[in-house]
Task: structure prediction
Amino acid sequence: MTHWITLLAVETAEKKAGLFDLDATLPLMAVQFLILALLLNATFYKPLTKAIDDRDEYIRTNQLESRERLSKAEQMAKQYEQELAAARRQSQTIIAQAQTEAQKIAAEKIAAAQKEAQEQREQAAQDIEQQKQEALRSLEQQVDALSRQILEKLLGSEVAV
Result:
């Protein structure tokens, strides 16, 4: 084949070349172009397109995975928000129950304190009444004794009996 190419090249060199001569160099250039295209396709374009296709597939796969992760994360966020709302409601009910219980206990303690204070007042009133009665009895005795003494001094010791 190289022999034919050299012969064609020698023949074309002998002829005068014009602007658009259609001699043996044109098919030779076309064959060279096709061989170059085939070589480039085999060594450069196919690996390059394969690398581009692999990268495109990798990107597509990552996008799908990221979308799935995002949707899963959104679902988890919604679930956590619902659980948080439920926990808040539960804590509010617990707080309300604790407040009502505390108010009930406080009311019971206030009532008990008032009852105790009332009992103490009543006891104090009874003690005062008892002391008053004792004081009156003591005064009566002293009045009786003083009356006798006055009678004895006025009338003598005979009348006092």
In short: The chain is about 90% helix and 0% strand. Residues 139 and 145 are 10 Å apart (CA to CA). The radius of gyration is 63 Å. Residues 24-125 form one domain.
